[in-house]
Design goal:
The protein has 453 residues and is α+β, with helices and mostly antiparallel strands. It is 13% helix and 28% strand. The N terminus and C terminus are likely disordered.
């Protein structure tokens, strides 16, 4: 029994290390896709998780102010049968003609022309947004308060054109088709995402009042005339303020579509983008939405279940929506176990911060370099290998959020079962840090025959 217990412990160790060492480090999720286009780069702030960021110092005051007019969530979208509420979007047909649009706020609007027509889907109600993706160019065209005049020409309050392949923000101080100067489409809840089971981006929402200012990534402020100069409760949030559902909020009791939305609100949160009914979440209308579930479930989620997030640490440039990604220097090996004579590949990831960084990785005696090292991305210095000291070295000053990956393949020289610990030292700004990956050599040959008896 003692022998079997010991062997069982080794087997458990093998499984534990095997599962832990071969997994890749945190990587960027794929951008949402629509019309053959990515909805902004994967490292855009809309597509960046904020579940580990600190709570904003003004969180309680913001929550109190928003909740003073309405205290629970509400879906500002529905099925067709439920009223067809929401902001629809259009995928432009190949060769679709573009038209000129006259804007009320022409000084803050992109002149166009815009790929819209009398058949374009338009938001009902007062805002009358038209959102159109142009496949091929992956340009997003958005207009607000849009109408076609009797003579066939088009007029709108404002309009904006976004390159979905770029992180470039609008000119500072400019509105868009949204009060915050942000694109609308990236923040919509879409049925196809809920059906797939995951929303990989922040959502857009409205609040009754907003502050006389805005924060990144917003580019424009809006203070409705009805909002008091001195609020009686809390303080209104600025345009661009991000909120998230608290991690401890229990979503297990809700319907499937609601769970997908609430999970996204925990991980990606939602951004104040316009004035309107407080705690109204934006989405595109779709026959697949189950209205009774969404309305009934979300009214059980209160403003007090949220917290404002300080995402200032994600900003790389005030004029770019690119966000620092919450990944760290790391080292991994794949596969996590190998027999004598077999290969294994190590990958070291170094996250750039604009400062000088260096790497020293001395191979253990039980490993021989088979190929590499290779270094990505192009443009960063290449790693080198010293055959005398059996050390891989690298140094450089990668820009903020640039992920340097150094990869090499080794051959296992060890004949017995055991753990091969491979440790590299990475130095940022004079502060060294050890990165370790553990490889199991010859994992099964000693104890598997015993288990078979």
């Amino acid at each position: 029994m003692k022998q079997l217990t010991h062997i069982g412990a080794i087997a458990a160790l093998v499984l534990t290390i095997g599962l832990g060492c071969g997994h890749p480090a945190a990587t960027l999720a794929q951008s949402p896709q629509l019309g053959g286009c990515s909805i902004l780069p994967a490292n855009n702030v809309w597509n960046t998780p904020i579940d580990t960021l600190p709570v904003d110092l003004h969180s309680a005051a913001y929550i109190a102010n928003i909740s003073s007019t309405k205290s629970t969530l509400h879906p500002d979208f529905s099925s067709v049968a439920g009223g067809n509420y929401g902001i629809p979007y259009n995928i432009a047909q190949s060769g679709q003609q573009k038209v000129n649009v006259a804007f009320d706020y022409a000084d803050e609007s992109d002149p166009g022309p815009y790929p819209i027509s009398s058949s374009s889907k338009i938001e009902g109600g007062g805002d009358r947004h038209i959102l159109t993706i142009e496949p091929g160019t992956c340009k997003l065209y958005e207009t607000w308060n849009t109408s076609q005049l009797n003579n066939g020409s088009w007029r709108a309050g404002s309009g904006a054109i976004f390159d979905l392949q770029s992180n470039q923000l609008r000119t500072d101080g400019w509105t868009s088709a949204d009060a915050a100067g942000l694109p609308i489409l990236p923040g919509l809840a879409r049925y196809e995402e809920a059906k797939a089971g995951v929303i990989n981006h922040a959502l857009r929402f409205t609040t009754y009042c907003t502050a006389d200012g805005y924060i990144w990534p917003a580019r424009h402020k809006a203070v409705p005339d009805y909002c008091p100069a001195q609020p009686s409760v809390g303080q209104p949030p600025p345009m661009g303020q991000r909120f998230r559902l608290k991690a401890g909020f229990d979503i297990s009791r809700f319907a499937t579509q609601t769970k997908v939305i609430l999970t996204a609100l925990k991980k990606y949160g939602m951004i104040v983008a316009d004035n309107g009914s407080s705690w109204y979440i934006s989405g595109a209308p779709d026959p697949g939405w189950i209205d009774d579930d969404l309305v009934g479930d979300l009214r059980q989620v209160h403003g007090s279940d949220f917290e404002a997030v300080d995402e200032s640490s994600l900003q790389i440039s005030p004029n770019s929506g690119q966000a620092k990604q919450l990944v760290e220097d790391n080292k991994r090996v794949v596969p996590s176990n190998a027999d004598q004579g077999q290969p294994a590949t190590y990958t070291i990831q170094i996250v750039g911060d604009g400062a000088a960084a260096s790497l020293s990785d001395k191979l253990p005696a039980d490993l021989s370099l088979a190929s590499g090292p290779t270094t990505t991305p192009a443009g960063v210095p290449a790693a080198t290998y010293d055959g005398v000291s059996h050390t891989i070295a690298w140094s450089g000053s990668p820009a903020d959020a640039v992920l340097v990956q150094i990869t090499y393949t080794v051959t296992v020289d060890r004949a017995t079962t055991g753990l091969i610990t491979n440790t590299a030292t990475v130095t940022h700004g004079g502060a060294p840090k050890n990165l370790t990956a553990v490889l199991i050599a010859n994992p099964l040959q000693n104890f598997l025959p015993v288990l078979r008896r």
